[in-house]
Model the fold of this input.
Amino acid sequence: MSKIYVTGLGPGAADQMTIRAQKVLERCPVIIGYTVYIDLIRDEFPDKTYLSTPMRKEADRCRMAFAEAEKGQDVAMVCSGDAGIYGMAGLICEIGRDYPEIGIEIVPGITAASGGAAVLGAPLMHDFAVISLSDLLTPWEKIERRLDAAAAADFVICLYNPSSRKRADYLERACEIVLKHKKSDTVCGIVRNIGREGESCEILSLEQLREKKVDMFTTVFIGNSATMELNGRMVTPRGYRDV
Amino acid sequence: MSKIYVTGLGPGAADQMTIRAQKVLERCPVIIGYTVYIDLIRDEFPDKTYLSTPMRKEADRCRMAFAEAEKGQDVAMVCSGDAGIYGMAGLICEIGRDYPEIGIEIVPGITAASGGAAVLGAPLMHDFAVISLSDLLTPWEKIERRLDAAAAADFVICLYNPSSRKRADYLERACEIVLKHKKSDTVCGIVRNIGREGESCEILSLEQLREKKVDMFTTVFIGNSATMELNGRMVTPRGYRDV
Done:
């Protein structure tokens, strides 16, 4: 039985993928993914059939994977970050109902929450909520409700997709909701291009974050009430009493 | 300047670490960690100085790392999962204030949320909250408040440390709070020994989860209102309209 391996490449650079993901790419003759991600691995795995579809054609890309697997070959479906967090794993499982003879294996990768936290210091030492600000597939009211709930319960909050051309003021709107519950000097952090050329980060207050312009390659972290800035790092204490 | 690399090994098996983590372990002459994690890597990296302290002596272990680094050698401080999620990264940053001449680099790993989700299918395709049920360092009231908020706002919820000998009924108590907001047939999943020998998983309803006895090697996933069971997998739809 041939198999589709839904594989997270981690954030950007090739050495951020797991050894397991590397072995999967070595084994599969066909690699399918959005062009940007394929370009990250093409040099390292040259003798492969690479297939792609444009962005937003995720369902087509999944059906392409099943069509290739039906020919009897193993397929790696690649995404950046973790295929299982806002990635392609779900859609592959859903479409997989139409292809019961094809196996599915999910190979996890480092998601932006983990990768970005490591760049900033240690913001995720305590309970956290991951929220996407993209309202392409989710009503904005639902996103607002989640921001409000997470802020009120003092979660550290990690925001994916904080901005895009059409959604330039979404981060500002999110910060305004969070500011109802969290202090304006709450320690926040932003990381851009995690694990890629031009990686950069900045620590700032929630007040400053509200005014900040970010792009779609940015991941945003909003601290909890105990999060501190320590020597240029964003750190949420875990609470070990014997420090 | 010598450096401490706080390194997440991922869940269990050695091929779940990133290539970057592997390179760090190859480079560092000293590896420090809780005994169980050291045993996972000792065979692969034999020519190292391995140091350890008992569990719950986390601060001592961090100071041991700085003491070794002060001798002029690079140190890898290893944890399972992601060092940046309920891991040692925060404590290293905090104690690092006393050692300004030692560099600190955080090397992320696959956390149990990612690793467990991949075993179950695709439960984390939408906004999610990660909550630890350990009240060793957090008041139980705060944990309850977060469970309540996350359930009310329809987050997928991932529970770390769902049980221990002293906290046998904590998962039951958590489910009772979640049941105030989520339906009793909400699709849930548990994964035990992620990436290790004896890995197993089970999909069950929230009602059944409440009665379930789990151990400290288990990670728990509680779906949102749209989470489904599909061919034995736990899948939260992302909402792509063109499936």
In short: Chain A is about 30% helix and 25% strand.
